[in-house]
Amino acid sequence: MCLAAFVVGARQGWVYVRNEYEPERQAMQRAIADARKRGVLGHEFDIEVFVSPGGYILGEETALLEALEDRRGEPRNKPPYPGQKGLWGQPTLINNVETLAMVPALLKRGADWWKAQGIRGHSGLKFIGVSGHVENPGVFEIRMGTTVAELIEMAGGVRDGKRLKAFLPGGASSNFLPAEKAAVEIDFKTIAEAGSMLGAAALVVVAEGTDMVETATNVVRFFRNESCGKCVPCRVGTEKVVSMLEDILARRGDGALLDLLPDLEQTLAETSICGLGQVALNPIASALRYWGEEMNAHLAKQSS
Length: 304
Ligand code: SF4
Fold this sequence. Notes:
Elements: H1 2-8, E1 12-17, H2 22-37, E2 46-51, H3 61-68, H4 97-116, E3 125-132, E4 138-143, H5 148-154, E5 164-168, E6 177-178, H6 188-193, E7 202-207, H7 212-226, H8 232-249, H9 261-271, H10 275-279, H11 282-300
Parallel strand pairs: 1-2, 3-7
Antiparallel strand pairs: 3-4, 5-6, 5-7
Helix pairs in contact: 7-8, 7-11, 8-9
The structure holds iron/sulfur cluster (SF4).
């Protein structure tokens, strides 16, 4: 952060920490106090910790700025972008901690060293969170180019010795991919070519025997709950889809709205003002693409 501040001429920085991460907040504040004692901080540049009031949408950079300004955490219309007009109207540089933490190593060891950290023709290192049906969930630092199957092995393999059924490579907002694609090499371009996205780099593992309609409904419900409500397509569209899916799972729907799902997905993608609404229906759309027969099985139960 000091190096980034030096480059852009910033005098003040904030580390934004979710309120659930109390030990991490304390560790950060100890480190800041130590840096001040050593004279690294507090003269040309200083850092404060801001504890998030909570909310998935606050990961969106302009919603994060709103929260820092003590307002309701809703994304701003862009432009202007934070680099032009950010916190308190000032030009603001926003990066995630992982990116800024890589800067000293990159400057010290150089670009060739960084490139050589990747394998199979990919560059660099990446932190990836692994969750879902694995033996040892956690955060792993991998060489770019490691395959999804290799990363699942690093996390102890699929839980209870089961086989892999599906995975989300980049967190809730990425498309589900089937087990047959687990040989995909982890990098932004290769995951996109496989039909999903690396996104937040949070691999979610789904074991065999899992109902994909229920799983996708759960993810869309999460987006419905986390929608900030600022724009209509996201606020109303996610609710419509969740109630349709919940009706189908409760055997009281006819699935008539399913035909409208592609239109709704396109509408949300094109008219929502932030990434949450733009990708909110990805989980169900991709689940239907690969496991449509599971939806048909649910629909067949509607009148029984
Ligand atoms: S897309 Fe959804 S989360 Fe994003 S600003 Fe609009 S209502 Fe809020």
